[in-house]
């Protein structure tokens, strides 16, 4: 349950970030599959500001993954809540800077502001990808929603066949159902977060970045509780 709750908060943050930065700079900083397509389109058309933005997003996302992987080292068995807590605190700090940009007296259309938003959000989402991978929930990714959707659809097919052919495997079927339910919620929350961010960006842009920040703070609190429980 704690891991699932953490993943859902992360998903909300990723959906918000992708919507916010795409509206601001026409770049995805959580969904690198989409960003790779945008990079390819800009390279195939003409090298422009869009090309640079996509490259910046890709490079800083990779840097975030690298730092996240170092912090949540897979040398320990089980879930290393202490290491994850440290990584989440770093992500919380980065997302706080991201939110701060929106309340500063700067233009959200300037290249410098857009570059700052891309760097901060892509780095945070790269870290998040490494953290979620370390939570060891098969078929779940909060920044690679296509993969989560594929796992869900594939799981539904296998589950339907198993119910017909192996009805006695009730426990395994129940585990599969919980996994598919989480995958479905990840997809739904990502989309709902994007809608909420788009609406808020249009009507109240100064506070739109609070949507992902609050979710990451919730993750930090949840992970802190899990770390305390693991030590006791």
Assembly annotation: single chain
The rounded Rg comes to: 19 Å
Tell me the distance between the termini: 18 Å
Estimated structural class: mainly alpha
For the report, how would you describe the main beta sheet? none
Unreliable stretches (pLDDT < 50, length at least 5) are: none
Count of individual beta strands: 0
% residues in beta strands: under 5%
Overview in brief:
This protein has helices at 2-25, 32-45, 49-71, 81-103, 111-134, 145-165, 170-203, 210-231. The chain is mainly alpha-helical and 232 residues long.
Topology:
Elements lengths: L1 H24 L6 H14 L3 H23 L9 H23 L7 H24 L10 H21 L4 H34 L6 H22 L1
Helix pairs in contact: 1-5, 1-7, 1-8, 2-3, 3-5, 4-5, 4-8, 6-7
Explain what you see.
By secondary structure, the protein is an all-alpha fold. It has eight helices and no strands. The chain has helices at 2-25, 32-45, 49-71, 81-103, 111-134, 145-165, 170-203, 210-231. Helix 2 (32-45) packs antiparallel against helix 3. It is globular and about 50 Å long.
């Amino acid at each position: 349950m704690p891991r699932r709750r953490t993943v859902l908060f992360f998903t909300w943050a990723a959906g918000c970030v992708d919507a916010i930065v795409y509206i601001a700079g026409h770049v995805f900083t959580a969904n690198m599959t989409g960003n790779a397509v945008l990079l390819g389109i800009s390279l195939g058309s003409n090298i422009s500001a869009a090309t640079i933005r996509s490259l910046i997003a890709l490079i800083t996302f990779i840097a975030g993954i690298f730092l996240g992987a170092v912090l949540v080292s897979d040398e320990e068995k089980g879930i290393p809540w202490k290491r994850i807590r440290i990584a989440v605190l770093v992500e919380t700090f980065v997302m706080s800077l991201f939110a701060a940009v929106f309340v500063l007296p700067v233009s959200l259309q300037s290249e410098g502001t857009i570059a700052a938003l891309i760097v901060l959000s892509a780095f945070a989402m790269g870290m998040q990808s490494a953290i979620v991978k370390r939570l060891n929930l098969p078929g779940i990714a909060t920044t690679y929603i296509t993969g989560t959707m594929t796992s869900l659809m594939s799981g539904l097919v296998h589950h339907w066949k198993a119910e017909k052919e192996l009805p006695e495997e009730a426990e395994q079927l129940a585990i599969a159902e919980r996994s598919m339910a989480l995958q479905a919620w990840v997809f739904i929350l990502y989309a709902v977060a994007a809608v909420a961010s788009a609406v808020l960006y249009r009507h109240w842009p100064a506070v739109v970045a609070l949507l992902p920040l609050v979710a990451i703070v919730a993750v930090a609190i949840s992970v802190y509780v899990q770390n305390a429980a693991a030590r006791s």
